[in-house]
Amino acid sequence: MSETSDSVTAHEGHGYVGHKEDLLKRLRRAEGQVRGVHRMVEEDQYCLDILTQVSAATKALERVALVLLDDHLSHCVATAAEEGGEVAAAKLQEASAAIARLVR
Amino acid sequence: MSETSDSVTAHEGHGYVGHKEDLLKRLRRAEGQVRGVHRMVEEDQYCLDILTQVSAATKALERVALVLLDDHLSHCVATAAEEGGEVAAAKLQEASAAIARLVR
Amino acid sequence: MSETSDSVTAHEGHGYVGHKEDLLKRLRRAEGQVRGVHRMVEEDQYCLDILTQVSAATKALERVALVLLDDHLSHCVATAAEEGGEVAAAKLQEASAAIARLVR
Amino acid sequence: MSETSDSVTAHEGHGYVGHKEDLLKRLRRAEGQVRGVHRMVEEDQYCLDILTQVSAATKALERVALVLLDDHLSHCVATAAEEGGEVAAAKLQEASAAIARLVR
């Protein structure tokens, strides 16, 4: 994985490539937060303090999801829309389904 | 931390102690999912596939939050309510605030 | 309904009775907001302006849900917990299920 | 729809126009559900039964929001994207902000 990271060649068309370092940093932080929750449970800390930490991790992941979706709309979907036709319609359909899953 | 983990003595009053192994397993899985998202971003995978994985991690954390809250209500809050008075009222107030943060 | 409204006698044990006027006011406002959304769609207003109004109505209903849940915990559940036993456990179980539905 | 809908001509380009009757029907139902919640509070019904009804109304409004957003993406945003340039970028930015508010 080491040599592929920061190598944008493979899928350089992806919208989030410009935000890649930002996303990776957010994800490392989220991973640390989840590990923190694990440690708090292991140490039998107070339920509501753990809940606060769970909320922080969830919010961090929601932020990642919004950045990804934002990039997807302004890149993949916009590119497809310029081409128009069935591919564009399918891309928009796919993006809408992803938004619906996010909102629940 | 090593010697305290699985030692329930320290705070054995916490409601989630009975669910501790279940919670720790869920958290290890959530941590793995967040690490998976990190790898997908690093490998420039498709935005919406990454989003699906982010949603899985978020749902896993929400489930952890509900287990913690459930345990908190049926243990800490119930114990306080039996005693009644101001302590019980404060505990319920605190639990309500945690629920509000969870619902947003 | 006319003669029962504001007559708290029927179910005076309910926790929200103290917040009844506040809840009714919030619900009238939410109803007005939903009617506003209906009018905006009828008048073909701009999608995102309508979305903003939909969000306002949803937030108003979430606030109502939290007030109801809060009252339920601090009244019905607390009362059951004081009595203890199976009834209390069932009440807590029921409240937890309601919270899970709210969080989704 | 012809004479009632306060002049459909004005903004007939809006994406949701094709779903207008569906949206209006959903909104009438949501309004009825909110009115039902109001009546349940007035009649001092059981907190958790009211909560269930509040959830139904919230879900109905979320569905309306997703239809509006879907129509907005596949119509307004797609149209702007075909034209490209700053207008398209602004439209996508605006749509992303609306999604973020929806997800919270």
Automatic annotation (TrEMBL), chains A, B, C, D:
Q: Which UniProt keywords apply?
A: Copper
Keyword DNA damage included in the entry's annotation: no
Record-level GO BP terms: negative regulation of DNA-templated transcription
Q: Which CDD domains match?
A: CsoR-like_DUF156 (cd10148)
Signal peptide interval: none
Pfam family, any one: Trns_repr_metal
Write down the InterPro entries for this protein, in alphabetical order. Metal_Tscrpt_repr, Metal_Tscrpt_repr_sf
The molecular function terms in GO held by this entry are: DNA binding; metal ion binding
Regarding protein family, the annotation reads: Belongs to the CsoR family.
Report the protein name in the record: Metal-sensitive transcriptional regulator
* Species whose genome carries this gene: Leucobacter insecticola
